[in-house]
Hints:
The protein is α+β, with helices and mostly antiparallel strands. The protein is built from 8 helices and 11 strands. It has a single domain (about 5-210), classed as ECO RV Endonuclease, Chain A. The strands form 3 sheets. It has a 6-stranded mixed beta sheet with strand order 3-4-5-7-8-11. A hairpin with a 3-residue loop joins strand 7 (about 120-125) and strand 8. The model has no long low-confidence stretch (mean pLDDT about 95). Keywords: Endonuclease, Hydrolase, Nuclease. Pfam families: ThaI.
Amino acid sequence: MPSRLIEIFEDTKLVEKIRRRLPYLFQLAELESSRAGKIGMEVGSVRERIIVALLIYKFGEANVETEIPITEPEVDIKLFKEPVSIKTITGKNFGGVKLIWTVDAQKAKEFRESYYPHCDILLVQISWNDTGGFYYIPLATQKRLFDKIGRENYIKLPKPGTNPRGVEITKEALSGLVEDSMSKRIVINWQKTKIEFNPYKRWVDLWRED
């Protein structure tokens, strides 16, 4: 059965809304996660929540399961009971997308030996003052490419002695996935808008309430 995710990319009104709103919302996420001009690691979680909120907006809260056990690496939500992974990257090239977060070299090796694609991917490519995209990469596409190029070319292990915090999908594999004819893309023009942002206002307002 084809994934319901494809409906996002066939809904012309929603596609326009994503093009218009996503840069603004992701800019807010960066402002919310910044201190002294530096963006913190937590920005990833805020971005993920923005995409989950989009799925709830489109498909309804009852069909988006967000309470996923930590034992399911890669799976961020379930949509109509089907697992979905949400990934975001910054920049024009497709490097640095994590399959699993771990600092343990042995765990990383074991992960590579046992890994096989098991869920659809929603990928957001952020490229400020440039074009990026919002992609749907079906599970079937991932399996086909994985079988074709093999795990060595699909999965990049952390370099020994470094601290990159995870096992990545190779740049070549990800480029192949997004360019596949079964994958879908919404082109996004990542322009920043002027936002008057005060990280404390919401909390101060809540303190003011009786």
